[in-house]
Design a protein that fits this description.
mainly alpha, 3 helices, 0% strand
C-alpha cells in the first residue's frame, strides 16, 4: 500500500487529493489480491500491514496450544495381577 501511494503521488497532478490517491490504491490492492488465500494467510498479511502502524495494538507473540503431556512414572498397579 505504501509503495502504491508513493507511486501515485509521483504520477498525480497537483489538483489530486490525498483521499483520491488513497482510494485508488485501495482499489488496486483489492484487485491484486489472490482469491485462493486462506484465512491464516489473510490474518498474517493483515498483521504484517498493521506492524507498520506505530499506534496499532497487536499481540506481542502468537499464542500456541500444545495438547501434549508426558509422565515418566508409569502406573503399573492395574496390570500387576495378570501374571
Amino acid at each position: 500500500m505504501d509503495e502504491c501511494l508513493l507511486d501515485a503521488i509521483d504520477a498525480a497532478s497537483p489538483s489530486t487529493t490525498v483521499g483520491e490517491l488513497r482510494d485508488s490504491c485501495i482499489e488496486k490492492t483489492k484487485r491484486s489480491r489472490r482469491t485462493d488465500v486462506g484465512p491464516v494467510e489473510e490474518r498474517m498479511a493483515a498483521e504484517a500491514e498493521i506492524e507498520k502502524t506505530p499506534w496499532a495494538i497487536t499481540p506481542h507473540r502468537p499464542n500456541y496450544l500444545l495438547p501434549v503431556a508426558y509422565n515418566d512414572r508409569l502406573n503399573s498397579a492395574p496390570f500387576g495381577g495378570f501374571s
